């Protein structure tokens, strides 16, 4: 176990390249797996979650090799069911994306994972697959899951859109290879819509065609398509970069982050920072953040759940009361993220109250260093680390290696920008 000590830091400065996008890398690896032939993924994220997806795709028959910073994947349209259960570790993306893909492989596939993953719901996805003629089972609606493959017939499926957009993305990966056309209708509005749009953009790059309604509640997927091989240059990850942007804002510092195209999920952090009175300048794919006297705002987290942790810390340093709402799904993440953020930031002196679907935070309260239990949640660890930059004394992040799930170089990048970071 690794303990990281964060000391109060008055100023950050410098320029770093944003960590590669976890969301993009997951999707590129799966699309390349389903294409017959070789695809290259340039500068992918290599993290615990991505390793889980790579290992799972390899077990279906894809061949992967590293060439310097790139990942070369030889895909196959003839998937084989693995002889052993696929361990998705703690990656909900892996199990939700690949459960439908497993239906394409002849034989039985079992997907399992960490104790926490086994508490994250998957029942709506299983029910949708059953509607499409796939025999499958779960443990009372939770992993492990068993998929009896051999193909997807196609047809019509309906499912909720407000539990996880990853259910939709998983079906979008697999259903183009169904025997007949598939119609997917959502019974509730789709949340985290930008992530489904990211899935569709990557599918389009591989010559997969999908018709979608304007409100993203109805998807028509022609069957018997085939994935073309394509190369991908992985952009930066706004959900990870948001922590560094927040760090600059709360220390009233100027930093620049590169490789952040504006059309990616969670780019709304730019708008949120501007609303909170931080100075933000976008130059092409670079984002410069230059502190500011922060002001409280209301934040609708419906499409940006991963931005809640850095926004909660920004709120602690903002004048007034910030209300974060439509964040109920955070209770079924790597932790009960709303409760974890509340309990750990309160240790530091934050005036924060949890609600059923969000948080209320009274800003400009004095924060002091504390010993933080991140609840094995990468985003809680990173949030409390940046809070520690503005807290008096030392903040100790226990089991800090949990950041390897999404941002293995987080503490190195913080230190590169001038933060006082030491291994405790």
How does this model look, in words?
With 424 residues, the chain is an alpha/beta fold. The chain has two domains: 4-19 and 236-423, Alpha-beta prism (UDP-n-acetylglucosamine1-carboxyvinyl-transferase, Chain), CATH 3.65.10.10; 22-233, Enolpyruvate transferase domain (UDP-n-acetylglucosamine1-carboxyvinyl-transferase, Chain). It is 30% helix and 25% strand. The protein has twelve helices and 24 strands. It has helices at residues 22-33, 48-59, 92-102, 123-131, 165-174, 193-205, 238-250, 268-275, 308-316, 337-347, 378-389, 410-416; strands at 4-7, 13-17, 37-42, 63-67, 70-75, 86-87, 108-112, 135-139, 142-148, 155-159, 182-186, 211-212, 218-221, 232-233, 254-258, 280-283, 286-290, 298-300, 321-325, 351-355, 358-362, 371-372, 394-397, 420-423. The strands form six sheets. A four-stranded mixed sheet has the order 22-23-1-24, with helices on one face. A four-stranded mixed sheet has the order 2-15-17-16. Helix 1 (22-33) runs parallel beside helix 2 (48-59), helix 3 (92-102) packs parallel to helix 5 (165-174) and helix 7 runs parallel beside helix 9. The N and C termini lie close together (11 Å). The model has no long low-confidence stretch (mean pLDDT 97).
